[in-house]
Amino acid sequence: MTQLAPLPKVVLGSLAFGVFWMLAVFPSVPFLPIGRTAGALLGAVLMIVFHVIDADDAYASIDLPILGLLFATMVVGGYLKGAGMFKHLGALLAWRSQGGRDLLCRVCVVTALASALFTNDTCCVVLTEFVLELAAERNLPAKPFLLALATSANIGSSATPIGNPQNLVIAFNSKITFLQFFFGILPAMLAGMAVNTVMLLCMYWKELDGASPDEVAAVKEMEAVEEGRSPAVLALANINKSPAAVHGAAGLRLRRNGDGDDGEEESVMSENISTKHRWFMQCSEQRRKLFLKSFAYVVTVGMLVAYMLGLNMSWTAITTAIALVVVDFRDAEACLDKVSYSLLVFFSGMFVTVSGFNKTGLPGAIWNFMAPYAKINHVSGVTVLSLIILLLSNLASNVPTVLLMGDEVAASAATISASAVTRSWLLLAWVSTVAGNLSLLGSAANLIVCEQARRAQRNAHDLSFWSHVVFGVPSTLVVTAIGIPLIGKINI
């Protein structure tokens, strides 16, 4: 039974956590617009200044394996981006697309599967503007495709420990292997992806009629004839609207808008010939680039295999990252500059803040009150637990929710059976991840899609809070409910 700390410690610890929560959810509040990262550090400092947690415990609460895995994953992602991985994913979306509904289904499936391997945030960063381009080329509204991208990225990322940050926390704290995690959530992820796609189709069926690029070109040609312009001139102007050219043009735009960018690819995957090994000097530039790109794909596959074999995920990812740096054979500063160090600092501050809040005893006391009603061996208990996770994930964000509730939920499940402990962790991963689809504020991936779409140089679209909620609320509730019975059905 968790005991509350003395009242002053509870009050001051809650105040420090409240400051962290406010800046995590509303990073630009007028009276303290310092952002999420600085907000996390402020919360950590307040915990120490208020003597809620001492300095040694604060340092000990920072989970270095998680930070190491995040860092290495971002390095590997940078090399894969330079190798054109996401350009190929974009090309797959555009290849022989058969209208708006077909394109929407492709966006859902490709995004979900890619997010499981390359994180939801990464996929949203590189695919948002490309999806806007595809929709515009077919005279389709942007909103259904942006919603498909954001919601599918969250659902797909639930399937692996490397899909999103909260899954990393769960994988490390629970000691669940990569394969156990993957197969434990895979059925729920696939079912959730399918249901989410069907709901999008049903809600936006009429708006997805659109027109194919060929039909758009034909309409413009007819308009040109009516206006007295030469169809041949118009055909020349619209030559890039053919399916093959659309495929190529989409690839060019994808390279320009964030994946395979010529300048960016050069900065990560190209090399200064004067610093290269003799073997590089004797190869053509094309062969050198092909070797570096091929090596990036090979070692990434090797990293995934190592995860499946149960090797330490953090050091496996770090080894993969340093292998890419060494083989690139040049100053790694260009690649390391692309790491989001602010995210690592945010996590460090959050670890300290959440650890301090736990020391107040308040989270444990709240859980002690709710625990009798949240047993995972009863349908009613699973329902109550899921609703608590959904609510907290949207109020305090999903990673703090996992840090606050993980040990308590597992300890409660341990009183039932050993298998219940594993299922409780997987249930926490599933619900906290899908909860991100409830509103724009529920997930960083949602905010990335919203901001990328709003700032797009071409075909910009403002995905409002309410337009997301209209679809996000029913989708989250239905997908969560359908996935829960499937959690842990495949045991490895």
From TrEMBL:
It is found in: Cell membrane. Its main location: membrane. Keywords: Cell membrane, Membrane, Transmembrane, Transmembrane helix, Transport. It is a multi-pass membrane protein. Residues 28-435 form the Citrate transporter-like domain. It comes from the Eukaryota. GO terms for cellular component: plasma membrane. The chain crosses the membrane at residues 6-26, 33-53, 59-82, 181-205, 295-327, 339-357, 378-396, 427-449, 469-488. PANTHER family: SILICON EFFLUX TRANSPORTER LSI3, TRANSPORTER ARSB-RELATED. This is Citrate transporter-like domain-containing protein. The lineage of its organism: Eukaryota, Viridiplantae, Streptophyta, Embryophyta, Tracheophyta.
